[in-house]
Amino acid sequence: MPEAIKQTSAEPMILMEGVHKWYGQFHVLKDINLSVQQGERIVLCGPSGSGKSTAIRCLNRLEEHQQGRIIIDGTELTHDLKHIEAVRREVGMVFQHFNLFPHLTVLQNCTLAPMWVRKMPKREAEEVAMHYLERVRIPEQAHKYPGQLSGGQQQRVAIARALCMKPKIMLFDEPTSALDPEMVKEVLDTMVGLAEDGMTMLCVTHEMGFARTVANRVIFLDKGEIVEQNEPNAFFTNPQNERTKLFLSQIIH
Amino acid sequence: MQTTANAPRPGGSVWTDPKARAWLFQIIAVIAVVALGWFLFDNTQTNLEKRGITSGFSFLNNSAGFGIAQHLIDYDESNSYGRVFVVGLLNTLLVSVIGIVLATLLGFLLGVARLSPNWLISKLATVYIEIFRNIPPLLQIFFWYFAVMLSLPGPRQSMGVGETFFLNSRGLYMPAPSPADNFGLFAGAVIVAIIGVVLLSRWSKSRFEATGKLFPVSMGSIPLLIGLPGLAILLGGNPLQWSVPELSGFNFRGGWVLIPELMALTLALTIYTAAFIAENVRSGIMAVSHGQTEAARSLGMPAGKTLRLVIIPQALRVIIPPLTSQYLNLAKNSSLAAGIGYPDMVSLFAGTVLNQTGQAIEVIAITMSVYLAISISISMLMNWYNKRIALIER
Amino acid sequence: MQTHTFKPDLPPPALSVGVVGWLRANLFSSWFNTLLTLFAAYLVWLIIPPLIQWALIDADWTGTTRADCTSGGACWVFVQQRFGQFMYGFYPTELRWRVDLTLWLAVIGAAPLFIPQMPRKAIYGLVFLVVYPLLAYWLLHGGFFGLTTVSTSRWGGLMLTLVIAAVGIAGALPLGIVLALGRRSDMPAIRVICVTFIEFWRGVPLITVLFMSSVMLPLFLPEGLSFDKLVRALIGVILFQSAYIAEVVRGGLQAIPKGQYEAAAAMGLGYWRMMGLVILPQALKLVIPGIVNTFIALFKDTSLVIIIGLFDLLNSIKQATTDPAWLGMATEGYVFAALIFWIFCFGMSRYSQHLERKLDTGHKR
């Protein structure tokens, strides 16, 4: 089991300071303070409605925070569109429902953003795409359409698509929750491979086995607040909080 | 579908064997339809003889004997009924095509406006749609024609722009161009410019794929489209002669006129159909799941490119089938022209010609066949298009 | 073991909620948005105040003749004077109570169908649908059992519009259901006949259908058998609308999972019992919104009978605007007509949306 990475004085990759978010009157994130170093793998867990998805979606501005600061790799996330798009180029995201573009082939899904955002020539973009499709072990599906693939294959394509932009950070929003049980492993294996290559990852998931294998830190959120965070061994065997203990007893059976 | 209720039972006679029963039923049905057809046909023959109405299509060669207010091809009273049909058909197509183009533009604008995050704009679009969807098109045509067009001032008090455009109760008068000496060169220059634009966009696309650098095709086309024809004018002189409408006596001479019937019909059909198209556009865009936008944005794609490359291609798949159905409705609704006397196919052919010749069967049969032909071709086009762009799934 | 104390819920920052927050988010979120808001506000300012001025503030409401319309606003005196004709057509004034009674009977009779808790609704509905038309025909047309005859040529106005719409949908619905079943039949001859019928009526404009039924029907029928003009129009409308209803019902039949057909067949139900007891009740419930939409379209289409000389609401108003005593009233007349049609159509479409929402939750898959 990997150890917690020491918080060095180097610039953190992700910094959330005093972040609050409201939906209308509903206070959904309360005073979130989080610092993530390069190469760290963080797992966020918590009951549904705890705000964990909202928290990571704030990191690429799919959700807006109303108070506090979020700084990604030195760029602060504000209303400034230029900053937002700069951050999004460096942050990749994998969604629960894959969100592949159904009218494009797998290869075109992967080359779309590199060609139109990073202005890569088509041939170069396709080489990069094939490289990552091989990484996720489905290069032979390159010319198929998403509708022809299984759920597990689609999610792996989604991971490859995000990787083609060569991001510095990867966010995973419950990547295996919509998959049939027999396909969960292939996606988790891909994510483990990514972790071993040193990618900075934040993952919202219920897969505690994955947390044990790969995470440096597990963070437990409830009611919009960080209740407890620790390295996985300590977190699972010796939770410090009543709420954490209750939650763990509910999901590990 | 084969159901177990219809499985053949042993020892089947005609009454209990479902297959035999099915055959019997179908034979009876076909006989009934044919018998009904024969019955109607027979009656019609008798009735036509009794009334002394001739049959057959030779009447199409007879001279018509009436004038038509708007004819896109040459026509005068001595022309045949057959020519009247063609004039009417062209008028129907004219108002249909103009209506379809304008309604599409307005409808897309309204559909997008309805989805705008700006509350005021979206509410205004909603109000427009809910008002004009729920008022019968004929009523809207009447309003535009009787309450607006006919209330315009007479020719002598026309509302005008400069001395070239005049709007009055007889119509909208505008200058009419006709080819002058330099027209050939000018037309050639326009054609060359268009070919140039096509080649330019092809080149820029292959350049983008090779190097990733975008060439602004639209910016580059404008100099071509303006420059080449402009050069032709500079070199050879004026390509067009204009005949400007002038008031002489009680009316205008010269120039073109858009008759008020055409204007009222086009306005009403455009406004009415645009409301339905707007709803189609809105449901098409809403059908694309929000996750698609999120995925594209999280890859760093800016809003404009996301719309163009991800959202709109998917939205169009949902928009186009009902859109063509609206186009068909507009073409059918153009027959409402009969209510205000716009000389379209129905009011000329199934109206005046039918009254004059009394040959109801032939006239209505021809009219209906034309509409059926239009419907069927649009349906076939739609089916072909749907098959072609269907999302490929397992 | 620690117990975590949760932080209290704070109210959101003032500028992001409340009226100010809403304004910022919806109207002024960017400079482009602000421009749009100003443009939209300008449009509203251009249209609404003059409209209200013309229609309400400056309008004339009381009087008896054209001369009473002195102000520059709308002359509603015209509508008020001709109101009877717009509502009843040429129906004799002293007999108008019969029309009113017919309407009230329809409303009272149909009311129980809208109460959700009403038991045995289907049977009551069927009985009502058989008894009421006979009753209505007797009341409106008369000619036996003590009521004087009022020939259909005197029917007009909104009353005629409603008659055409109601008879149209009542006739088109059963015919459309039969056509939809026929189109999905296994028997090729039946299927071809139904498809041809449906595609024919859907491909031609209603005006040509009305022409056809008013001009050609007399030729199709044997000597001596003739229908009056209204009946000819009704036949045309019913045949035309049945094709559209057939397509709507077909959509519903397609949406019923195959398992329903199989289960019904496995129970030993023959074709008609299967359709009548299992499939159609579900399919029709699914497409009620579609049927209401078809009815709305039919209601708008009734205005076309002007072409064959029937005096529905639109034609009555058009006639009135050509009356020499009331020249220049075209705008008032058509605005009034638009208002009536709009109230009916918008009301029905709202009801259809309400139905869709209500039925949607019941059909969770």
UniProtKB/TrEMBL annotation, chain A:
Pfam families xrefs: ABC_tran
Organism the protein comes from: Pseudomonas spirodelae
One MF term in the entry's GO annotations: ATP binding
Subcellular location: Cell inner membrane
ABC transporter domain span: 14-248
UniProt keyword annotations, A-Z: ATP-binding, Cell inner membrane, Cell membrane, Membrane, Nucleotide-binding, Transport
Protein origin, superkingdom: Bacteria
PROSITE patterns linked to this entry: ABC_TRANSPORTER_1 (PS00211), ABC_TRANSPORTER_2 (PS50893)
Membrane topology field: Peripheral membrane protein
Principal cellular location given in the protein's record: membrane
Descriptive protein name: Amino acid ABC transporter ATP-binding protein
Family indicated by similarity: Belongs to the ABC transporter superfamily.
